[in-house]
Amino acid sequence: MISENLLINKKFYETLIGENETAHPIQILGEAYLERQKSDVPELASIRFAQGEVYFHSKDYETAVFKWENIDSELSSWANKNIADAYYELEMLSMAEEKYKSITTDDLVLRAEVALQLFSLYIEEKRFDLASKTIKDVVSFYPDYPNVSEVARAFFEEQQDWNSGIELAMSESMRTGYLHWFDVLLGYIDSGYTEDLPPDYFIPMLKSLYDADRNRFEKVVLSLWSIYRKQDTYFAWLESINSLISEAEINQFDSWTDLSQVYQRTYLELIDGSYLIKDIQFTVPQVLMNWLKLSEDQNALFAAAAVLSWSENFQGSIQDSVAHDAETVLMKSRKHPDSLRESKALFESILHWASRHELQIGEKTKWMADLLSNIQIQQILVAGTGESNKSLFVNFLSGEEITKPDTSVFTSISDSDLAQITEISPSGIIPLDELEAISLSRRQRDSVFEVKFPSEFLQSQSIGLIDTPVLNGQAGIREELLESTHAADGILYVLDASAPFTERERTILLDIKKESPYQHIHFILNRMEKIYNEQDAIRVLEETTARIREYFPAASVFAWSANYQGQKQLNDLAEFLAYGFPKGNLAEERTERILYFTRKTLSDLLERRRDMENGYIDSIQWNEEMAVKLNGAINQLHDNEKEKMRILKSSYRAIKEEVKNDLTTEIPKILRKCANLLNEDSDFRRVHIDLNDAMNSKIQEFINQTVSPKFYRSLQDWIAVSQEEFSQSQFYLEEMSDGFNTLYGDDRIQLECDFKVLDDWRRDADRMTSGVYSDEVNILMRHTPSQLLLKGAGKLLGAIAQNKAALYTRYKKFLETMDYDDVAESIAKKYLSQFDLFEKSLDRDISLFFRYPLNVLNQAVTASHKEIKESQEALDKMRENPEVYLDPITLFEVKLRQYEWMMNAGK
What we know:
Elements: H1 4-8, H2 25-37, H3 45-57, H4 61-68, H5 76-89, H6 93-102, H7 108-124, H8 128-141, H9 148-158, H10 162-176, H11 179-190, H12 203-212, H13 214-228, H14 234-247, H15 257-270, H16 277-280, H17 283-294, H18 297-313, H19 320-332, H20 339-356, H21 363-373, E1 378-383, H22 390-398, E2 410-415, E3 420-425, E4 428-432, H23 436-440, E5 448-453, H24 456-461, E6 463-467, H25 475-484, E7 490-496, H26 503-515, E8 521-526, H27 534-549, E9 557-559, H28 567-580, H29 586-673, H30 687-744, H31 756-770, H32 785-797, H33 804-817, H34 821-840, H35 842-880, H36 882-903
Helix pairs in contact: 2-3, 3-4, 4-5, 5-6, 5-7, 6-7, 7-8, 8-9, 9-10, 10-11, 10-12, 11-13, 12-13, 14-17, 15-17, 17-18, 18-19, 18-36, 20-29, 20-36, 21-29, 25-26, 29-30, 29-34, 29-35, 29-36, 30-31, 32-33
């Protein structure tokens, strides 16, 4: 069997030369060739093959080719490969390529060597695609050939062909199980070269790596996780890795700290409100079950609580066996040391979400949560009825006159280097200048007042006080007191020594105990100075204590008197407070209280969502009703406008007709009376001219002195009537405004008419009736036949004295019988022309009077339709995607319940 290494290195000739030969191989092989020719059947192929190798090493490539040609033994394929190598050395690359490709053999080593030579040839010719195909082919049929995979990796990296490099590392790592190849692949992953590959591509490799090396498995998984976390394929990755982890056998001695933390972070990201529940409902249970499977120590508590919380909220999504394991972990765990900070962070995340969705959370709730975050100061709530005079005790502790006996506000009192007074109202935080401003605030019932100032006692005891309104039986104050107990670390209830622990006080305190069952409650027996001797004082103290402990067995009672404000009483009180309100578990208790306010906030948000939906519905209904009412008002106003037009135009027209009638009736009479101006001495040659002037003068006098003054008075009366009509309309509109404003709840509708129209009419009346009528009318100068006759006769006969009497008689008769109606009609038409124009403008003027109210009503209708549209769109959006609002709240509840489970650790 010929050694393949000898053939590869062209050292086969060494097998034909003895070890002790000192002659040149050419000489030795030549002599051997001559000797073998003497045989009957000479076998010369091996010697020729060896001679070709020697010539090749001597760089006599042409002779080498000559020797290797026509070899037909088992070495023929290797001879052809060597011929191609010779061509390659002679830089006859095309001939070398052709020769390499012509070689067909089942010898894997030879195939590999031929392929590697072609690979080198293609690289030299910069035919990198063929080089890549060739090296991949070698790796495929003979991956164990020495260094071939490393050669391939180096080539792929040099060409930056990362997909081929990744494929090589994947296949080699799974084929060989060598950690080196897993490390190569991890390097590609960390460099970001695998970003475009689907998650399930890596699962077979991860299975192999899990069996080979758990630490490297964790590193590769974490690297892939960090990449897919930023991609759209994130959920596909979670599905793939969760499937793998769930099937894996986890050794209890293995540590998965980093992977467990990634699972925790993933869980928190999935439920932070960025995703809808339908998008994560199948993913989260797998994440939780694997997280619990991998968790250890304190991290296991977090995982177990998350599993139980999710299982409670989404029943059936977690396997019963996993939930049971979680309960076991919870019972064996210690309480979470950082629960207060994380609970406050949950509360803050809800505030942030609400802010982004423009939902208001009460400043009072936020303030109480902030108050609980400071575990350096213990908060003591002080309560009592008006009879207890607790303000004396509160002011004694504070060292200042802070509260009043009849206080009706919640006041937080704490030590501070600088004096500061703040009002925490529903609308925001408002700084105040002095204590008196508290009693002047209009928002006392809804606000909390925070008073900070230097207080030696509060500072030395590290306490703050929450002074409550006196309990006077009002239900609202009682409810607020019960809620405020969750912001306190203990309760001091102040009793009146003359009537301590009444039935009403007992009922209040039992309500407090029911609201906060684990709250520390102790008592101050106030106003002991009312008891005159020591024995009675001791008796009252003992009897009161005994009655209290029937209901509150752990309670203590401290007798206090305003008359004994010495240091001893203060020291005794400090000791009483320290004993009654221990600070050992303050962080744990504060966590529970913050979780209470968190749950209350979530309930308020759900209620607010219902209120928002009902608000949109009510808005739509109310605005629809308002639109109907407003349109009805617009129609009524149009009717009123038309009615006023009819009334005022009709009355104006009547006045104008009366004036016209006066003109057409009286002017003919006046003109006929002008016949009396004639006499026999008149100059009949120009009498028609003189009479025409006289007639015009009479008409002007009649119009200016009779008609116009009468018309003016009539117009003034008409304007007065119009003002009354308009005033009635205005009164009607004011009633309408009041009705609408009552419905709106503000003075939104102001239906003011434009009474300046009346001023315009008065000016027009003055203008039309104050002018002097002076138009000349041609009465006798017209060219009628009779007038022509009279004028001609006057000229011919005027100078003849005997004809004057006859002419006078004819002229007078003519003037007295003449028809002046057309003259009167003409004068009336001309005189009334401007009044006709005024009449035509009445429609416009009356419409102008009503224009502003109509505009206001139309704008109100437009506003109602706009609000209907906006409310309907918001309602449709809310109903179309309720999960956008409800899902984050549900997920916040999941996280809240998780923290509540963690509070039960070890129980």
